[in-house]
Amino acid sequence: MAELQFDTYGKTAVRLTYVDRTNPRHEVRELSVSIFFEGDFRDSYFTGSNSSLLPTDTMKNTVYVLAKQLRWADIETFGRGITGHFLSRVPDVHQVTVQIEQVPWERIGEHAAAFRQAGTERRTAEISATRSGRQFTSGIRGLQVLKTADSAFAGFIKDEWTTLGETSDRLFGTVVSADWTYSRLDLDFNGTFTQVRDTLMQKFATHQSLSVQQTLFAMAEAVLAGCPAVQEIHLTLPNKHCLLVDLERFGIENPNQIFMPIDEPSGYIEARVMR
């Protein structure tokens, strides 16, 4: 006999642009919001009864209404408001998870109402809430960084198929993905996000790297040391390779100046670090 082991349903990628006109200097927040319900929805699978289901179109509309009604300056607070709304309205839901991705817009000069999109980087938040508690996870996606010195890789295992040479001077490029959880929630989420992001970039820039793994741990360690509210951090650092172009065949020296960036394949390094 077939058994239903797990189920969830919701609405994904609800796009929203919010313009905060509270002050003469406007603020733009562009979001993509996804909502997932877990609860007692078995009848919808077994009998086709929809009596316990809130339409996902209603979820979409709720995002827009709450964006207007709630007071929020960060995506964590907005997500908390969304989870609380649905928990109070839908009797059969046991857990609401809200995932939010924010597109960064930055001001053009000092203009009060003109902005430019700041690239592929995204700020993220996930709020999972039940009637007995909540968990917040904040994060970054697509933070592209590169250092042209202070990066080495040597002393690794070699076999008959190893072609990679040891180096004490290589380009180190990666696209940082980070998620972190908190030991407390009475904090400034915007300020903490900025502090974590700045700490990750500063440690990446200044660390004398012997491997991606070592630098990843140093970055995580710096966040835990500098941000007391962060309980643990999960980092993914793909090693985005830049290959030195061989110009000797043209009679030209290439002292670590001309490289060919490649997207695939890339190295993959991931770790979770906690207090």
Q: Under the CATH scheme, which class of the largest domain?
A: Alpha Beta
**Order of strands in the sheet with most strands:** 1-2-3-6-7-8-9-12
Order of helices and strands: EEHHHEEEEEEHHEEEE
- Strand proportion, as a percent range, falls in 25-35%
| Record field, number of beta strands | 12
Characterization of this structure:
By secondary structure, this protein is α+β, with helices and mostly antiparallel strands. 24% of the residues lie in helices and 34% in strands. The protein contains 5 helices and 12 strands. The strands form 3 sheets. It has an 8-stranded antiparallel sheet, with helices on one face. α4 runs antiparallel to α5 (212-226). The radius of gyration is 23 Å and the shape is globular. The mean pLDDT is 96.
